[in-house]
Amino acid sequence: MTYDTVIIDSHVILPTGMIDKNIVIDDGKIIGLTNDIPACDHKINGNGLISIPGAIDTHVHYGVYSPINEAAKTESHAAAIGGVTTMMRMLRLENAFSNSLQPQLTTSSEYHYVDYAIHASIFTQKQIDQMSFCTDKGITSFKIYMNLGGEVGHVYMDMPPNSSNLVASKVNVTDELVEKIVKNAAKLGCPVLVHAEDYESCGCGIKKAKEKNQDGLSAWSSSRSPEFEAKAIKTVCKFGRDYDCVIYFVHIGSEQALLQIQEEKKLGTKIFVETCPHYLTLSYEKQNGYLAKVMPPIRTENDQKAVWNALSNNQIDTIGTDHVANQLKLKLDGDDVWGALAGFPGIGTSLPILLNDGVNHNRITLEQFVKFTSYNAARIFGMYPKKGTLEKNSDADVTMIDLKKEKKVTSELFGSFSDYIVYEGRNLKGWPVKTIVRGELVAEDFEVIGKLGHGKHVSRIITSK
Ligand SMILES: [Zn+2]
């Protein structure tokens, strides 16, 4: 028997530790890890590189500022270069899923270089009623935006495929709606992803800061203080306990939010925690301009330390980038921090940031790195053992890493729709150099060589039923 591919001479990192074995791949699947080199059509020489289960980015926004037929192409290109083999899209639709979901799915299937999965955002009763329509299509997690409502209820939804118009919308995610979503998600056995910021408090905070003519990222942070995160965390965790629903907190980046989550865990809430590379690397104390405006805001150096500690102690489960594929002309379409657009790209720099600042600075081990970048996400979101592992029969998604590779970050490096990056010019040591999706080499040495359309939708299973 001749196999498709064997990856030789790499150090394979699993959540349990490192083993030096060859990875045998056939028909897009892992056949096994062996000491010998069986007959094969392609040999990939690892030359001492690190091989890990393909990285999963749990939190990606694309299809908002360019339609999915373009966004999938550019952002999965950036993903491939960044070593990400599965990108999880935060789908935001204005209308009923029965009308608007299928066109997104059909179009998506033609334009990805890497695999993708979808979280569905819920804004209305009509959408709550159609959550099972989503689970039938393998979309088994739901996003709640507690930050959106009242005076701060403005949001851009995803564009319909092939459109080029922004879809500006206003929504009202009240506590009542949050409770209903949590209740229904629990019934379906699905986790909810929660953006935990209390919109009423944030609305007041912003109003006050504007009245005082405050500006800059520090004003942005104090206008939506960590207290308002803690408040929302408390509210949704109560619902989580009442209905026995798994709560996954997206983009946690402040010490106070982390402390509140520890409290809620003690009370018995089932919680998973995601942080983003920017909360590990940026603070408003050191960051000028408006590029790093994001919700929730980047905080202080002290918060940054707290997030690193939580990561080192495994109080955080996953790394998602909260990547937003937007452009400078929209991002800085205003004279102050209030007029700037929130969110920035980050899917390509996630692994190198974690390797440079985390692994190479001995803050996290390579085993932890694997858990945070794939294994935990696959388990939480119903993709295990298809993804997040190199076990026999799992998808042959492999990211190969050169821990010594140094490179300066530029926005051009990734081929994203975005024309800027908050890490511009930063020298990072530790980069993904080969990205393999279901046995196909999709990117190598900062170049995408895969086929457009190779990326497939990962239909997920229900995890907690
Ligand atoms: Zn987000």
UniProtKB/TrEMBL annotation:
Pfam families the UniProt entry points to: Amidohydro_1
A GO cellular component entry from the record: cytoplasm
InterPro entries, alphabetized: Amidohydro-rel, DHOase/Allantoinase_Hydrolase, Metal-dep_hydrolase_composite, Metal_Hydrolase
Alphabetical GO biological process terms: purine nucleobase catabolic process
Molecular-function GO term, any one: allantoinase activity
Domain Amidohydrolase-related: 170-442
UniProt-recorded name of the protein: Phenylhydantoinase
Species classification: Archaea, Nitrososphaerota, Nitrososphaeria, Nitrosopumilales, Nitrosopumilaceae
